[in-house]
Amino acid sequence: MPKLTVENIGTFDVPAGKRLVQALTQDAGTDQLHACGGVARCTTCRVEFIEGEPEKITEAEKETLRAREITEPGVRLSCQIACDHDMSVRLISRLEGSGRKNQGGAVADEIEPAPNWTTK
């Protein structure tokens, strides 16, 4: 079982293959945003990798980061990442202080849209 460390919150065992956005909200109990429901459109689910950033990236994530001009090293969309190894992240977009009513809509168990994998 992969370990997910969330800065200033703790370390959690996460079922292999679980979407990072779900691990953050369900397993770690954080208030991570995911306004678009986890389909790589809004960038509210951004995290910064401290360790364990995946080498692969979905084409949807790559395009959304490019379109939104998000170029900071290690910043990724948690909705497009499967927990298949140990990782450590810093939350960027949280409900607290956002002015939003809720974290976002329901997130499917599988990465959406269907992932086409590429390299960063």
UniProtKB/TrEMBL annotation:
**Chain ranges passing through the membrane:** none
Q: Where is this region: Disordered?
A: 99-120
Its protein name is Ferredoxin
**Which species is this record about?**
Rhodopirellula sallentina SM41
Needed cofactors: [2Fe-2S] cluster
Record flagged with keyword Metal-binding? yes
Read off the Pfam families from this record: Fer2 (PF00111)
Q: Which UniProt keywords apply?
A: 2Fe-2S, Iron, Iron-sulfur, Metal-binding
